[in-house]
Design goal:
Elements: H1 3-10, H2 18-25, H3 29-41, E1 46-49, E2 53-56, H4 65-71, H5 74-79, E3 82-89, H6 92-101, E4 108-115, E5 133-142, H7 152-166, E6 171-174, E7 178-183, E8 186-199, E9 205-214, H8 219-222, H9 241-262, H10 268-272, E10 281-286, E11 289-298, E12 304-308, E13 311-315, E14 321-324
Parallel strand pairs: 3-4
Antiparallel strand pairs: 1-2, 4-5, 5-9, 6-7, 7-8, 8-9, 10-11, 10-14, 11-12, 12-13
Helix pairs in contact: 2-3, 4-9, 7-9
Organism: Halomonas salipaludis
Keywords: ATP-binding, Biotin, DNA-binding, Ligase, Nucleotide-binding, Repressor, Transcription, Transcription regulation
GO molecular function: ATP binding; biotin--[biotin carboxyl-carrier protein] ligase activity; DNA binding
Length: about 325
Amino acid sequence: MTIGDLIRLMRDGEFHSGEQLGERLGVSRTAVWKQLKKLEAMDVPLEAVKGLGYRLATPLELLDGAGIVAQLPRNSRTCLSRLIIEESVPSTNAYLRERFAQGAGHGEVCLAESQSAGRGRRGRGWESPWGRGLMLSVGWRFEGGANVLEGLSLAVGVVAAEVLERHGLVVALKWPNDVLLETPGGLAKLAGILLEVSGDLAGPCEVVVGLGLNVDLPAEVRAGIDQPVAAVHDVVPEVSRNQLAAELVAGLLDLLSRYEQEGFSAWQPAWSCRHAYADREVEVIQRDGRYVARVEGIDGAGNLLVRHDGEQRRLAGGEISVRGRS
């Protein structure tokens, strides 16, 4: 019995006794009780009523691999070699890196209900409660060198923004790999992107594109995050997690299949028009210090162009952290 097995039985919104759950799952009431305690520890809210049993306080939509594939357009299915749905992994990126080490990985997609060691940029953790977000990674093999990958994380941001905008969200992109939601209180982080590259950067290389998207984020989880955050369900509570997953998978597979031939220039205008800090002052934080500069845009390789002390500087991804100034 897994957490997913238990949730599938309880997602009808009805009360179920421990005995009924045990009979249907083929385990003891004690085993069911232990799993219910795990659900509570994972911030999955339960209601317990004496004489009736347990039910989910809030319905959860589990990931459905067959349903996601069924929603993909034909060209995306052609690019997709395998869709993997896991209940829990250390990280979806790590899962696909291991697949590449085994000689697979290209065109593969991994999604998970939860991850225990999810990472954002610069090694930061990525918090997402069980079954409430999208942790999604796509593996792709490129024949060209490192120049083929220039601006790729920004192009991934464009794909995510286009999907979210179709559902009525107003988003902005923060260089180099954050998707922000425009809220009455200001910009809040909605999604993060993490690219990991292996192989020969002068020749064939393998890329894992990771995307973490907040779909539903309980207040108790937000309270433990040290920056403004937002979730899709803040704006459109009815949108399906599986529908979002299918649209993101389709968009990313299309992007990756075209990127080696077209490069970042095909996505540069779309990124620029969503730039969160265009023509604004930002604080640039680097290893050797920090300074205030004015953002002038991005170049054809995805570098951020800023002006400091009358001099234009070109900032490459992975070197800095940029904070907006009010």
